[in-house]
Design a protein that fits this description.
about 240 residues, mainly alpha, two-stranded antiparallel ribbon, 7 helices
Length: about 240
């Protein structure tokens, strides 16, 4: 029964992939996570400026609540991405843009998993009186760190906080890049990338525009400049190496 259900579900997802569109499950995961990420970033910024007291405690409790939910959703999205048929669209065309898109997705998954995990470690290390729950209904355990010494716990919290902040900075850099790339695919390339994740957005007619010509010309200039500078950079770095 379960095997048949999974088989039918994957076949249903394959039907969307054949149409170069993400399945509704993937779309819901994507936009739900996007909304939660933006909320957590804004909420975290506000928490850092809130005055100590009941409001701050409530703010942190909500931050923890959504963090647990994000961890579960990130794991679910990763599992769906691994097992569901992979969509092949215009973003997979050979070239540096396809490579950059894949690297960006890996970094995104690192952030989406690393942020709640590092937050979980912070709470488990030095705030063990905190009660974590999933959706406020299901108790969520703390990491088993209670038998460690106080210096070890403070070290874990320090590393986890450093990692948490670094991942936040990474997200703040990635989000405008990701949004800009999606808009570039839709407005300049007029391909199916954004339409595949946002089906309510009409697919634009595929025709060359002046923006495409300008972008391609700029791309060629940058590539030409890079090809000229790269040999000079290699020669310069070779001179700076100490002799054995």
């Amino acid at each position: 029964m379960i095997d048949r259900l999974i088989t039918n579900l994957l076949a249903w997802a394959a039907g969307h992939a054949d149409q170069r569109r993400y399945s509704p499950v993937g779309i819901v995961f994507h936009w739900t996570m996007a909304g939660l990420v933006l909320f957590q970033l804004g909420w975290g910024w506000w928490m850092g400026r809130a005055r100590p007291g009941g409001d701050m405690v409530t703010a942190y409790e909500l931050h923890f609540l959504i963090g647990v939910l994000m961890l579960v959703l990130a794991l679910g999205r990763l599992g769906w991405r691994l097992f569901a048929p992979e969509i092949i669209n215009d973003a997979d065309k050979p070239g540096w843009e396809s490579t950059a898109a894949h690297v960006t997705h890996y970094v995104f998954y690192t952030c989406l998993l690393g942020l709640p995990l590092s937050g979980w470690a912070i709470v488990s290390a030095t705030a063990r009186e905190t009660r974590l729950t999933l959706l406020g209904l299901i108790p969520w355990p703390l990491l088993p760190l209670q038998n460690l010494s106080a210096p070890a716990l403070w070290s874990i919290e320090t590393v986890a906080e450093w990692l948490h902040r670094g991942l936040v900075v990474s997200l703040l850099a990635l989000i405008p890049i990701h949004v800009g790339a999606a808009l570039k695919h839709h407005v300049i390339d007029r391909d199916d990338v954004l339409h595949g994740m946002l089906p309510i957005l009409p697919q634009r007619s595929r025709r060359r525009t002046r923006w495409q010509r300008r972008y391609r010309a700029l791309e060629k200039r940058v590539a030409s400049l890079a090809s000229q500078l790269w040999p000079r950079f290699r020669r310069g770095s070779g001179r700076r190496q100490p002799s054995p």
